[in-house]
Structures are given as C-alpha cells and as structure tokens.
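request received
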Amino acid sequence: MGQGPPGHIVMEADDITRALTRVAHEILESNRGAANLVLLGIPKRGVPLAERLASHIAEIEPGFVVEERLGQLDITMYRDDLRRLHPRPINPTRIPPRGIDGTVVVLIDDVLYSGRTIRAALDALGDHGRPQAVQLAVLVDRGHRELPIRADFVGKNLPTSREERVSVLLQETDDRDAVLITREEEAA
Amino acid sequence: MTAVLTHLLSARDLDRSQAVAVLDTAAHMAETQSREIKKLPTLRGRTVVNLFYEDSTRTRISFETAAKRLSADVLSFAPKGSSVSKGESLKDTVLTLGAMGADAIVIRHQASGAAHLLAHSGWTEARIINAGDGLHQHPTQALLDAFTLRRHRAHAKGMEGDGLGSDLEGARVVIVGDVLHSRVARANVDLLTTLGAEVTLVAPPTLLPVGVETWSARTTYSLDEAIEETDPDAVMMLRVQLERMSRAGGGFFPSHAEYQREYGLDTKRLGRMRPDALVMHPGPMNRGLEITSAAADGQRSVVVEQVANGVAVRMAVLYLVLTGAEGGPS
Amino acid sequence: MTSYLIKNAQLPTGEHQDLLLDNGSIHAINPHIPPPKHAHTIDADGLIALPGLVDLHTHLREPGGHGETVLTGSRAAAAGGFTCVHAMANTFPVQDRAGVVDQVHALGERAGYVEVRPVGAVSEGLEGEKLAGLAAMARSAAAVRVFSDDGHCVFDPVLMRRALEYTKAFDAVVAQHAQEPRLTEGSLMHEGVVSAELGLTGWPAVAEESIIARDVLLAEHVGSRLHVCHVSTRGSVEILRWAKSRGIDVTAEVTPHHLLLTDECARGYDPVFKVNPPLRSDDDVAAVREALAEGVIDIVATDHAPHPTEAKECEWAHAAFGMVGLETALPIVHEVMVTSGLMTWADVARTMAELPARIGRVTGQGAGLAPGGPANLTLFDPAARWVVDPTRLATASQNSPVRGREMQGKTLWTFFRGVATLADGELVDLGEEPS
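response:
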C-alpha cells in the first residue's frame, strides 16, 4: 500500500488522536471505569487502534495495566467469504492471560461497513470464552450495514456511497495517520 | 504474502517463501489446537474426500482430523484393488467423486504420478492434495517434518511462536535408509533444501537411485561417517520394507542383522550425536531394524510430535488449497 | 486403372523429373513428359518423390486385439506414405503358425492399401520356450521372412541361437526385442535423473545393450543374420558399430520417437509417452541420430503401437506401453534428420524404403524410382505444416506422442501398385475397388 491511494482526506492525524481520546473516555464512562475491561483489536488496523486506546485508558485509569487487558483477535478463519478470496494470511490471536470469561470485551476495528467482520469476530470470540458483554469501538462508521450490528463507540460517522472506498492509514502500519475517501475507479 | 496453492502435488511446488507461508499457517493452526474449542468454521460446507488406494491409517486419520477441525465434510473412500486389477478405473472413481461435490481430493496411491494425473486430467474441478504417490512424493509429510524441525530450532534459539517467518537455513539433516523406494526422502530432500537446510542421504548403494547425484543432497554409504562429519541437527530414519531383504535373485541388502549394524539407529550412535539432535521417523517404525526402541522412545525422539504436527500442517494445506477455490478478486 | 502424370517432382537424387504411372508400374521418368490422354496430372512442384515407405515394425492388432485392425492400420500406413508394413506377431491368437500369418496377409490384401507382411513369432505363443513353426510360416502364402517375439525378448540364449540358425534355411531374419527381463522387472521408464526424481522404476540402458552384445556374438558364431528392433541407447550404437566393423551380419532400426523425444517427456506422467524401450536421454537421442546418418543404424521403423484410450487414460504404472507413429514418421525424420542436415532425401529413401525392404526380403518394394519398376511411391510436401490432432489421424487409436505438435511436412500422395491410396492429402476409399 505504501502511502496509500490518493484521495480526499476526511481525518487528519490530529482528528484521529482527538477521536480516540474521546472514545477512550466514552468507554470508561459507559463501563463506569476500566475494572472489567478487555480490549481486543481486529487485525490489521484494529490492533494499533486498540493499543492506542489502551494507552489512553491507562493514562486516565492508573490501575489499568495494558499487558493484562489488551489482545488481538484474528477472524480470518471465521470469514464467510473464504471461497471467493485468495487465501488470507492468518494473524495470531492473543488473548490476555486471564482470559475473557466474565469480562467486558471491547472489539476494536478501523472501519465498520457491512458488519460481516464483526459477525466473524463474535464467532471467533465465542471459541475463546464467554464474556459478560461485548462492545464495539470503531474509528469510522461508514454505514451500509448488511447485518444487525452497530457500534457502541464511533470516532467519526462518515456518510459514504458504496462506490467509495474508505482507507484508514495509521503510523504503525502505513507510516502516517489519515482517513481518506476514494472513488472506486480512482482507487483501482 | 500467503501461498496461493491450487493443488499440492509435490514438495517441489513450493518455493522458499511459499513453504515458509505454509509453515506459518500451520503454526497458527497449531495454536488454535491448544484451545478448548478446537474446531474452526473455516471450511464449513466444503467437502474433502480422502481417496486412499493404499492402506495408511495414520495419514488418512491425520487428514480426516485436519478437515474436521476446519468443519469440512469428510468422506473417506478406499477402493479395493487398483485400476488394473478388478474394480473401477481411477477416472471413473474421480468422476463419481466430482459428481458428489468433492471440493478437494486427498489422494494416496501406489502409482507414482497419480496425484499429478488427477490434477491435470480435466476429470475433476476438485483441488488435489497428494497424500503419497508411489515412490514419488509425500509433500505433507515433508512439511510436517520441516515444521517439527523449525519449531525445535526456534525453541533452541529462544524464539517465540514456533519460528514464525523463519526457514531452515543452515540446519543439517541426515536421512537414512531406503531412499530408492522412499517418497518421504524425495519430498524431504526437495523441501528441506528449498528451506535452506543441508541434507545428507545415507543408504547402502543398492538403495540409492541412479541419478541421485543430481539431487540437492549429499550422499554417503556410512551412517557413522555422516554423523561424524555433519554433526546433524536431526536424523530421520526411513522405514525399511522387510521384503527388500535378500532373496533368491538378489535383494537390496543381505540380512536384517547387517542392515541394523550398518544403518540402524541405536543409543551408541545416538551418543555420538549432539545432545539436542532430533530423532525423526515418518512411521510406522520397524523397531529393532532401522531404529531401536531405546532410540525411538528416547528424549530426543520427536516421532509422536511429528504426528501431532501432521494435523496442523494438513489443516494449513487444506485451508490454503480450499480458500479462494472459486476464483474471484485477488 | 487411372494413369497419373506427376509433374516436376524432386527425386531422392535431387533431380526434378516428371513421372508417368500406368498400369501399376512406373512407365516413364523424364524431365518433361507430355500429358497423355486420360491421365490425371499432379503438379508436384516442391514435392519430394520417394519410393513407397516400408515399415519393418508395425502392430496392426488383428486378429483379436484392440485399438486397430489390419484395415485401419493399413489406411494409417498409406496416409503416412507407406506401401508395405510388417505386422508384428503379438496378436490374439499369436502369429506363430501358418494359419494365422496367412489370415493377416489375406486381410492386408483385402484392405488393399499397403502390402501387409506378417512377422512370425520366434517362439510358440511368444513364450520364449519352444521354437514356433518357422518353416511353415516361411513356406506359407504369407512367405514370412521376419521372425520376432517383439514385446518380449528372446531371452534364452539357446533358443536365440537355434532361431538364428534355423531361419538361415529360408533366408529369414530374427528381429530381436532386446530387453534383459530380470533387469527390467517393473521398469516404467529410462533409468536416470528423471526416473529418480519421478519415482518411476528405472529401465537401465544396459538391459538393452547386454542383449544386443550377446546377440551379435551369437550371430557371428552361427553366421546368421540378426536384426535389432528399436535401438535406443548410445551403448547399443557402440556395440552395433563394433559388430559391423567385425563384419557381423547385423542390421538395426530406430523409431521416430526415439529420434525425437527424451525421458523428459515423462515429467507430466502422461502415459502417452510410456513406451518400450523407454524414451532415453538427450545424449542417447544424439547418438541414435548420428548412427542413423552414419549407417550404423540401418533403418527407421515406426513400432506403431495403437492402444485404445482406456489403456492410456490412467496411472502411468498401469498404462500400456507404445505409441502410434505411421502417420508422423516421415515428418519427424524430415525434421530431425533432413532439416538438421544429417541426411539427404536419398538417405531417407534408403533408410525408410530400400533397406527395410531388403532386410524383410520384400520384392517389389523399396527399390529406387525407375522406369519399369512397380508404382509404389509417395509424394511428400516438406513445406507443409500441420498440427497433429489424434482424432483426425487414420489410425483407430489416439496415442500419438506428438499430438498438438507441429509437423514439418506432410505426405500428400501415396501410390500402391499404381493405385492412389492417398490423394492430395486425403485417404482414398478403396472399399469398392477390387485389388
């Protein structure tokens, strides 16, 4: 991907940081603290987003130890479109040492679109334990849901058409922070 | 990058990066197998047929387990006899399996090239996985051997995650026994050297094929010399078929005792190897012939682990071969 | 019978001549023959006129076999420029007695496309134990002059010696399928680098060479003629060269496929490339080409071995040995021997017509094109290009190792005893015509 596709910038680096800070506060507010929280990023870009949220939360809640509460959940083997896609590399799944039974798991992804990724994530999560509750935080909600799934915490609601592509770029994976909208034909 | 595999017919089908990708996928599969819930929904609705013309309970069960752990429907079919004797031709069998909706056919056959034939015949759209063809290839065995080696190398170096991303550069492996009749040896020479390992083949001259000099492995007739000179990270003992022994008109070696003396792995030979050198065997073992029980059951034997790794490797191969099978965008 | 005036054909000698075929023989050869009335004129500008080709090694599979009949095989032969074929003895029943060889001979005459010369079995039932009724076959209407257990080696040295001796009585020849049986148990392809990699049991060159070495010494000892079938290795060539230098009366053949293809063809496990003897190495191919050019190998013989589809549509180990070759022999020889400069058209006429006829003691075949001689000849267009589609070949089988391959040159006309069996590239239907 490199610098990513050219396109219309809808979030700059500062916007992303502000959005994540706000989402971190909302998560704490809604759960009345961080006592029972586990954050699981969904590869690829959900993972660095989860890391950033975790460090925001740790700043606010000194008792929150990142290593004990942060993990990642690979959903590749739970996708419903494997027949059509070329084989996807499988990413590791890392569940915090104490497991997820009885915790509040916050799934974190970059873009919420059809909802199929989250459906797969819920299936995958079920194979690792039984959380007390599962919540969803995304940086961008671009609409066009195909399943009855919604996000609990949203960095930015972004009305789009299906012909547009939303690209989230992050320092950790793409060497810069930005959210872009591209028309499909430009992106191709 | 992930390997795009249409079929898996030969260890030669894989270049180094593809082989590493298969091993990495297997490592992730192995990780899922330590969970309480081992079954993944990945291949739900896909049908995998195990077509075994040759009796091999262990390989069949390994593939069956792998397919079931990925939620595929598994049919096992063991035609009696071969196509030349009574019974239906390979073509008709495969046409039948295609009609039953096989998405992948795992084939084990006495005839070298049987898997290749299926993949190129146009008789079936199914993906073909070679589970051993005649004297030719047994790629999943080589992959599980490589996986086992890589995992132990990673642990020895204190690396995490079963050596994810790494190859076998510099590993030294000695393969001992009936190379001439061994698809395991052929597949391992190809795959291990592709991954950067140095392979030494040890056998009596009668059990090395004419043409072996072009293989990417060194050959020697002396096991003691091979141990001495290569200081191996692993020694892989091949099964010796008893019917190869001397008989009227010439066998391949004179006697059980002589074979054992020259090429058998016992504690004495083991004692001359590095303390962390691995003992491998594709099974089933002839205890007391190519390997003594003490060597087979000793601390360094990874024979049982090879079996466990076989399931993870076969899960990886099924996953890579069956995803994207309907084409579509890359 | 139609007369034909062939205008401006290139003869094997290189001269351009007109040829007039009339009443079954070559009536005249001249630089310019005015067209007689009622003669069909063929513009042969750019075509090579060769004596009708003679194949010393053909499997026609009748009686009792599958994949070909005497009629379909004869048509394939005519399409390839042949006017005479030698039908190998491995039929069901075996051609090991006068009744069977006469039947095959009669089937050939009835088909009318080529002269079918049955080969008699050396041993009863091809079993390699007892001599077959060689004299009876020689004295029969089929007048057998070539005896062979082809497909099996006459392995017993005493039986081979007796056969070599016995056939002297009627000036016949033993054509040996040189294959040491113990060294080739379960063998599936040439033993070498490729067999080691493919895991197909190897067929060592020495299994062929050791038998040839024995047989030339036996032939020398008893003063007999020996013919060696389908020579495929450099070692065999060396032994033959030595034997000829000693004056041993040995002749040898090479097949078009051994001149063209190597064991690399086995890599795809396509049984169409499974053949006995197996396709050999590059070096062996180079050796048999040189030997043919040099005369150490005397002739080209097709070993045309038709098999029904099911015998080849299976695992390599289970497939039948053999490949069809009558219709592609001449283009292949053109490509590998003439185009490459190793041989002239005179050499082609010698190795594919004259010498095979002489070895088989066939009169009226293979002789040079000369006025008064029988009108057995073929016209070949060396410039034509065609891609082999097995479904369009005249043979009843499709196991062509050159399927999908472009051929250099095409046989356009074949005349057998003055009758056009192949006309402008199309087989003539002789069904109604008595011959």
